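Q: I'm building a small set of examples for a reading group on sequence design. Run inverse folding on the following structure and report the sequence directly after it, with nothing in between.
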């Protein structure tokens, strides 16, 4: 097998480069940052509320992927770099 054939057969999975993935990560990142701030400010109720948003972010990402905004979804268009 030549090097050119090996390069052509390599397929990028594209994981994480979709609106569904970005939305899920941003929701979870904000929730963790807020939870950390509230923990530092000694606000246990707000820490708990922020913690609830971490799985909500994962669910939102899954729902968006199922709605077609995932990597191979019909509503997703890959951007050239």
């Amino acid at each position: 097998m030549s090097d050119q054939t090996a390069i052509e057969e390599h397929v990028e999975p594209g994981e994480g480069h979709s609106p569904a993935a970005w939305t899920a990560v941003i929701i979870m990142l904000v929730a963790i940052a807020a939870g950390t701030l509230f923990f530092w400010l000694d606000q246990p109720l707000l820490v708990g509320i922020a913690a609830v948003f971490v799985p909500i972010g994962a669910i939102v990402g899954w729902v968006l992927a199922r709605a077609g905004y995932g990597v191979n979804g019909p509503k997703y268009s890959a951007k050239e770099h």
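Residues 14-69 form one domain.
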